[in-house]
Specification:
This protein is of the alpha+beta class. The protein is built from 13 helices and ten strands. The chain has two domains: 91 residues, Orthogonal Bundle (Transferase Creatine Kinase, Chain A, domain 1), CATH 1.10.135; 235 residues, Creatine Kinase, Chain A, domain 2 (2-Layer Sandwich), CATH 3.30.590. It has an eight-stranded antiparallel beta sheet. A two-stranded antiparallel ribbon has the order 6-7. 38% of the residues lie in helices and 15% in strands. The chain binds adenosine-5'-diphosphate and arginine. The site of arginine (ARG) has 11 residues, from loops.
């Protein structure tokens, strides 16, 4: 990078800095940590695949209502731009140091059904994000690479058998009613997230994207959405045990055929730093009309390290006192610890609802 190029990179970042600081409505982690010192220290840097700090923070600048406001344009961004990423990661997850993978022993894990009468929990879902080694992240992956990645994953999918065996449905060519029904039933992603849009997440849409699911739609894989892969286990009701163990089996098979980006310190690398570490989001759709009508509902959940979303996913509204409640922390604790934290938190939410 020439000095001239370096100066213009920094100038551009200073414009971003002013925009964030002048916006009284912006309170993102990006705004809090993107200082002039950071610009001075890393503003000139460019990763080997050509990504700059501007590429990483564009979404947070264009969307001042972001809560985090930053994405890793490529895997190297996490190290090259560490002076900005690290404090944000630490603040979000409460930790910057991630332990070794530990899903626990499926022989001894035994989660009791949290809601045997079906009064509160409608459905349970656990997902992880994975990115495939050697391929750029969503913001920078080319059309050809998206296609090559899709082909590689399709081959890996042929190794599922028994209850995990299923069908791959590419997004291009899928008819509208089929797609709409899959979205409505909470199985499929869609193109409506302006944060992801600004970060470059919808380039070449819908090329190279698709969904795999087994016959009962309890084991699903999204290809080339926010991360290269989202591996999902879900079912109606509150049987955490079967949802978690099915996910473990699915991940184990995929790992035999595909290598994923993982960092000793940060865990599995994801496009968005909120997903680093275990990358697990374990959620329930839960009916809690009394608790959710209390003014401190979201704070109560946050106190249990739980996050609240609408039932059509992130940044959506909800109806009838039904919410998507999931773990907030994905880093600094193992996979089984994340699930336990979430399970214990949901137990307390149900207790609280009963007490009101
Ligand atoms: P992600 O979980 O992959 O980060 P979203 O929050 O956008 O992304 O959710 C993706 C989809 O998963 C949405 O359609 C959402 O309704 C669905 N979903 C999430 N949790 C559950 C659940 N517990 N039961 C049923 N569907 C769920
Ligand atoms: N970038 C958005 C924000 O900062 C979303 C962050 C988390 N969500 C995600 N899908 N990665 O609010």
């Amino acid at each position: 990078m020439s000095e001239e190029g370096g100066v213009s990179l920094k100038e551009n970042l200073l414009t971003y800095y002013d925009k964030l600081q002048c916006d009284p409505c912006c309170n993102s982690l990006l705004k809090q940590n993107f200082t002039k010192d950071v610009i001075e220290e890393i503003g000139n840097k460019v990763t080997n695949s050509g990504c700059t700090l501007s590429d990483c923070i564009k979404s947070g600048v264009e969307n001042p209502d972001s809560s985090t406001g930053i994405y890793a344009a490529d895997a190297e961004s996490y190290t090259l731009f560490a002076p900005l990423f690290r404090p944000i990661i630490e603040k979000y997850h409460g930790s910057i140091k991630h332990p070794f993978v530990d899903f626990g022993n499926p022989e001894t894990i035994n989660f009791a059904n949290l809601d045997p009468t079906g009064e509160y929990i409608i459905s349970t879902r656990i997902r992880v994000g994975r990115n495939v080694e050697g391929y750029p992240f969503t913001a920078t992956i080319s059309r050809d690479q998206q296609e090559a990645l899709e082909t590689k994953i399709k081959e890996a999918l042929t190794h599922f058998d028994g209850d995990l065996e299923g069908t791959y449905c590419p997004l291009p060519g899928m008819d509208d009613p089929t797609r709409d029904q899959l979205v409505e039933d909470h199985f499929l992603f869609q193109q409506g997230d302006r944060f992801l849009q600004s970060a470059g997440g919808y380039r070449n849409w819908p090329h190279g994207r698709g969904i795999f699911f087994n016959k009962t739609k309890t084991f699903l894989i999204w290809i080339n959405e926010e991360d290269h892969l989202r591996i999902i286990s879900m079912e109606q009701g509150a049987n955490f045990d079967s949802v978690y163990k099915r996910l473990m089996r699915g991940i184990k098979i995929l790992e035999q055929h595909v290598s994923f980006y993982r960092d000793d310190e940060l865990g599995y690398l994801t496009f968005c730093p909120t997903n680093l570490g275990t990358t697990i989001r374990a959620s329930v759709h839960i009916k809690i009309p009394k608790l959710s009508s209390q003014p401190n509902f979201k704070e109560f959940c946050l106190g249990l390290n739980l996050q609240v979303r609408g039932t059509h996913g992130e940044h959506t509204d909800t109806k009838g006192g039904v919410y998507d409640v999931s773990n907030k922390r994905r880093m600094g604790l193992t996979e089984i610890e994340v699930i336990r934290e979430m399970y214990n938190g949901i137990t307390q939410i149900i207790e609280k609802e009963k007490s009101l």
